Amino acid sequence: MTANPNTAMVLAAGLGKRMRPITDTMPKPLVKIAGKTLLDWSLDSLARANVKKAIVNVHYFPEQVVAHIAARRAPQVVISDESEILLESAGGIVKALPKLGKEPFYVINADTFWIDNGASSLDRLALAWDASTMDILLMLADLQSATGHSGGTDFLVGLDGALRRSKGDPEGLIYAGAAIIHPRVFKDAPTGPHSLNAYFDTAIAAGRLFGMKMHGRWITVGTPDAIPLAEAAAAGVLTETP
Fold it and tell me: Domain range for residue 126?
């Protein structure tokens, strides 16, 4: 790809049950880390990557998200309203496809963020993207670069960058909550709630799921206990000198 995708899908509709009691009164994407909401960490990364339009799906306390993003200028934020039913990751994307267009787009999870060391990870994803060989390109992180991650790894990377499931193999990498996806993968997709994982597996079977390891610190915030870890990691990385 010679230029970054112009559009992005920010997955921000989840219930954040593990973040209770904080999420009893607010949606998880509005939890602040280092003075910035998780949602703004995502949107700021997209703005730096010159994304023009971000589709943000909402379900839980949707009016809070709508009010929060009202003051943003870049990227342009378009709300995809899932108030009636929570559609999960892939279902949310399928609903938003008319807004996303026919070109490859970024997908960002609003409960994780990262601080790049060097070139922008989203810029590097765009440079690595090859629509002729890929349907999905995932940003990946190693366990040593992750803060707040309590699980194992997700994928093993082949010499050509193609992915297969790692089944927790410590040599594997973690899906870091950012990707480029071609909308063709959602052709004939169901409209109800369903997960992106099925599309990952379909792409693996076709040899069209690829990955790129990020450089920097990847931070996931799943529970209240993860907030001070995330704060410390963000502060530590932001104050480091090259």
Answer: 7-239
